[in-house]
Amino acid sequence: MSDYRYIGKKAIRPDGPDKAAGKAYYIHDLKRPAMFYGKIKFSDQAHARIVNIDTSKAEKLPGVKAVITAYNTPEVRIGFLRDNFALKKDKIRQYRDEIAAVAAIDAEIAAEAVDLIEVEYEPLKGVFSPEEALEEGAPLIHETDPQGRSRKDNVLPIRYRHESGDTEAGKKAARYTAEGVYSTPLVQQSCMGTAGCIAEFDMNNNLTLWAKTQIPFLAQRDFNQALADMGLRGKNTRIIVPTLGGGFGTGLDTHAYEYIAILLAFRTGHPIKILYSRDEEFAYLSPRQSSQTTITQGCDERGNLTFRSIDVLQDNGAYTSWGATYPSVMMLPATSLYRVPNIHFDSKLIYTNNTYCQAMRGYGNPELSWALENNMDELAEAAGIDPYEFRLLNCNEPGETTPMGLKISTCGLRESLRTAAEKLDWKEKRGRRKKRGVGMASLMHVGGGARIYRSDASGLILKLDDYGNVYAYHGGVEMGQGLHAVLTSAIAESLGVLPEKVFINPTDTGTCPWDVGTHASRGSFMAGNVAILAAQKLRGQIFEMAEEIFPAEAKKKLNKILQKDKGFKPAEFDVERAAKRKNFDLKDGFIYIDDAPDEPWLRLELGRFLRAVHFRDQGQMLTTEVFYDPPNELPDWKKGYGNMSATYVYGTQGVEVEVDTDTGEVEILKMVAAHDVGKVLDPQGLRGQFYGALAQGIGYAFYEKLESQQGKIQNTNFRDYKIPTIQEMVFPIDLEFIETDDNFGPFGAKGVAEPGLVPTAPAIANAIYDAIGVRIHDLPITPEKILSALKKVPGTFFQGEK
Amino acid sequence: MIRFDYFKPNSLDEAFSLKRKYPDAKYVAGGTDVMVQIKNREIQPLALISLRNIPELSTIETNGKARIGAAVTIRDIIGHTELERTYPVLVDAAKRLGSTQIRNVATIGGNLSNCSPCADTATPLLIMEAKLRLRKLETTREIPIVDFFQGPGSSCLTTDEILSHIVLDPPSERAQAVFLKKGRVKMDLAVASVAVLLELDGDKCLKARLAAGSVAPVPLRLRRVEELLEGRRITPELISEAQRMAEESVSPITDIRSSQEYRRHIVGVYVKRGLEKLLGWSRV
Amino acid sequence: MKHEVAFILNGAEICVRIDDHLRLIDLLREVLGMTGTKEGCGEGECGACTVIVDGRAVNSCLYPALEIEGKNVLTIEGLRDAENRLSAIQMAFVDSGAIQCGFCTPGMIMSAKALLDANPDPTDDEIRDALLGNLCRCTGYVQIIEAVKQALQRLKGPS
Fold it and tell me: Can you give the pTM of this predicted structure?
């Protein structure tokens, strides 16, 4: 394997020093001249008709510049199903519905004005679970669809399903089966930097939006549609992405607050900033989608899986965002984690008056894996087979094509299972059932982009200046995951320059090439690949020009040396003859001829070369552009078939726990995460991604849950919604990266941003089962639930349950 | 809009006279509770009277009795070697309060006056039978701490009174105490907490004081458990009885942090563990 | 009402006239334009707003600005040296991968600084205790602890 200069070595993040100095500017820190502040009035009902909105008092408050409602603005529909609106009219359908908004000279006045807006509601009966929403005579959340046709029920017209093989035959062939119903709750992404944006129109009515987004170009598309709705068809939106205080999926959709900022900006003619406070973030930003999964699996005498049947039910909430597409991602592990010949996968999404949901890291995979990996252990137990052996037996192998049509090129699952078992001391520790236990769970996820849209592309523009500096324009979003560090290293490595000479420009739809978005763990995979392609192109251009420039510059340099040092004896070398494009190399910012003697006149500094190119007759500047759409397919969702990604990642996590059966507390003694990453690009950044993901997985497993009662979120601050603190991460974590060296991955690397939290919760659940024989089906696994379950074990006194 | 005047009196007399001038003003010390309440519009005082700059409220005296000024920060309680030596259970509880940043400004008087059933300093002070000095312009009175808490957020302070000092008698030679707190994560309001003090002669219990937090409208003395234990040899059976009695003595609620059944159960477990620890039967 | 408040900010004396109800974080961010200190929750739970007052880490979102009278305040902006170079703690954070989105970073660094100034040789437990009030959603904290340990080595100097 070639020895890379930067790839595989620790990369200093280019954004690190500014962040450490407090000089990174987040949306919270940005101001535009003459900017006003926007605040939104949210509904305090879950389901009601709007009888009247009285904004008169708000309008009179000094400092208020505009008050808007759906009644004095053009209708702006939002969401991919177009079932949502920037401002709500006639009816509200959930607690967080945006009823009105105020622009004022400061945020306090805006907030006070919001309080002065009086809304008269006619309450309607609300439905707060899929079951309630499906009952006979249940009120319709949406009486009509976006095209105006009458709806007959609360079932969404979205259904991801997959049938392959013959599940009936599979059931008959099964000697052992295991069935279970599993649920996952609403969880908040909890970015430390809350959501916000600044909207500003220029005098030509083109819009600039500084947005906390992961999808600048899809957002541009969405907002251009909104401009058309506002009577500004043909006008353009420019999205500029500032430093983000975290993403985790919150930036994958466009949000009502952004459209509201745009409406206020247009109404007032001033830049408008809307910023969510922490309470607003919890109460009014779409969280992770909850789920309920019914799963049955069966295996034969020897333990080979014979069928898998999965039905997913999701509470879609009042409107539709990416939560509704989780089942499309769930389909991947449902069909392709372990080898299963006969598969039924179906999903049902129901409108309710609860909050609607958006993407969060893992995007359905943690939800499905929660059910699947618990069930695998249950089935292994039914079959009398050790769960580790059971997984090995049904392991995916490289080269296979799964029932969904996923082409598994490289696959580190077997190795990850073995590593997890070994690091956990599995054979020694499994099965003792004395309050200490070990458990494992595996995952598979996309690792080579994910075609969820007609293009899965990214691009890169590299612009060289007179000094050998390389300016990169890339549409991917740095949200802390280290994308800019990887891009810098990839450019430096592929082009042959020092990382310090690479400058990554801000993500800006006005300057960067189109990018579908930074999601599905595709960031590094795409950035790395476009860096390699762009560098190749640029090197080609440089070496072609060097045929002429190199000998001329070499001669100049040699003359200068001889002038200074008359005794200098240059090595024998026919520069003219050797100066052919295929003989050149660019290394550390110097152009060399292969196999030339190592003398100063035979290396040409890139900046000098570029100036020579620039200032000669008919001079040129070097800029190159590439656009790469990876070799993956948009699945046929009717069939549930298609090779969605260019490559896939597999992995296994294992946990050792100790359970305090008096308090129900679970202590993690040790964690091991063995993940197929293709190639380690930046070892420190990679570890950071995994530690962060594991922490989120632990929160997901043990205490994170948004409590929704009658549609209202009850825990809207960090006092009541707990995420892991530094003292929760006190156990040894063993990260093992398996390098399977993928063909499609840049330098062999696969995307790995999400996998780290996918199997964590089920690994913990499986370990708890090993420790105390109790399996909790509904996340989070709280001490209350453990004690409640333990009452089934003789000798405990606990009566209640939560 | 959040608007208030902010006063920084340098003496108690000045503070009292400000309060008379602005009867709707609220006293504030560290602000870690009051500022959050203001932000959430739970209270909307027109003025705040800060107690942070009143020297007599910010001192700790430990000759004989301990007299802790109400405006002493939790951090300064933790850092006070004499307090740690003589009243270690108070320091232990103080260490579990919030975070470093909170402890650096939060005060013991504020923690008590907020009258949260979760107050971390309340249970240790209850088992040590602290006295609270309540002052108003004309008079001072001292009450047993157990009379201070009336209900969640409600103390026996009259509108013109403040809590000025916490007074502790030196503990007996034999007294040992322990503080146990359960949160969902390490920085959390208590889901349940228990403080236990025992004076033992071998395994005979001469004196028992127990208190529980977050399991009743106020931080609660577990008197029936105390009566059960005093004068008796402590055996595993007695501990089990104490555990059950503790469960029966409390009236927890179900809220966002936990369920009442769980809280009740934890109180019993913590009483058991507290007793076992003090008897040297286990490490907690 | 408005009052003047005179204090020492990052080593320099300063006096400003502010509204009574301002919090220290408002004084820093809004009045003085020093946006390095971040507001993550406004309730003292996340620690993103941590600054150091008289050597002690505090949540500036809960600190009434008028209480800063006569005190010594250190913010993230004050850690750079006279030549505008990052301090040892900041360099350790950059070097250890302890920074991802960076929103929690200023507060985290200030808590670390307060710890190391008071206790140059903390145990792992003491480090965790000092940083308990600083939430991070990105890093999982492991590399943050590594950064603090690297910082204390750097500060100790060559042995």
Answer: 0.97
